[in-house]
Amino acid sequence: MAMLIRTILNEIIPKPLQKYISSKFSDLISTYFSSTFTFIIEERWQAVFNETFRAVEVYLPTRVGPSTDKLVLGSNDPNNPLAPPKRNIPSDCKIIDEFEGMTLEWTLRVKESDKYYVPDKKCFYLTCKKGVREKVEQKYFPHIAKTAETILRKREKLFIYTYNQDRSRWESAMFKHPARAWKRGYLLYGPPGTGKSSLVAAIANYMSYNVYDLQFQSVRNDAELRRILTSTTNRSILLIEDIDCSTKVSEDRSKAKDEKQKEGEDGRPINRPSPVDPGVTLSGLLNFIDGLWSSCGNERIIIFTTNHKEKLDPALLRPGRMDVHLHMGFCTPAGFRKLATTYLGIKDGKLFGSIDELIKSVEVTPAEVAQQLMVKSDDPEAALQGLIEFLNMKKDKVGEEKLTQEKEAEKKTEKDGGKQSKKLDEAETGSIYLT
Fold this sequence. Notes:
Belongs to the AAA ATPase family. BCS1 subfamily. The protein is 44% helix and 20% strand. With 435 residues, it is of the alpha/beta class.
């Protein structure tokens, strides 16, 4: 008979409804007959960060015992790579804690978000016997809060936090002020081809430092800039090339965003969704170079390059941000002799005097000189002769351009003079002379 009833019910009641009824029945049974109780501590509580969650997050790594089957280890102190790693709790890891005769079971559960701008949802689950529920609330949780506060007070490392707008949460980086900053900023400025990038490579090789080449065009905003810069290692060079162009990124992007705003029929602007990000601002860059964020990291060299120093904001140029300004100018006779030694293996020659005089009379970059010497590096005489021809051509071209500019200036002067004379004649024609 029972089998017949089950068969009839299976035919009449759909499978999803059967599962729903079964789960509700199981919950009802477990609620009334289960001997355990579960506390749920979420990461956020009433739109703010849950302080109880923060305390548990600090407390639990100290309670890891033999029953724990997995653990997260990591270190964020680049100044002490040999120090023991710090502990953290992975998801779905069970930790057993003992307190005043009670056995308590902790589990961290993480619900991953399918959207990058929505943070993952974290919850701690504390399971205990129903009979000790009040004791857990009144004694155990205050014990956790007090222990966590003691642990935080003993921490040697401080952290600086910034709000991540994309992820809607605060992110931290290690904060250490050494009293005497181990950080230097250099500005290399001069025309293209004068060796600014080559000098950076030479410094990196000499110091055995890694180079991080930062392109502002690929950075969406100041928050992302901080995350990128704090992820660089100590004993490294941060290279920001063409800083005069990079600081315009924010301005150009804001203009593009303004173009998205059109006026409606009533004259009010219509704000349409725009994919354009605000970009990196000057204040965001300065805050990392010279603000609180400059204390995050050690033994770092920041090098800026530009072709036009006069275009830079004065706030960037002051000491503490750009400590040394190094002008990379056009090639000089001494520079030519160094290049000749490097590429041709000679220190002097009969053509050196002529080349010295030509270099003094024309603006030529070290890159242009090096290119001419490399063409025939196996034949020094031919290479020097080719360099002389190149310098003469450059000198003639400069002379022609100068002559053209003078002629255009004369024509403009004559044209302006004719207009002025015509105005005087018209003025005299319309004048009344009184005697």
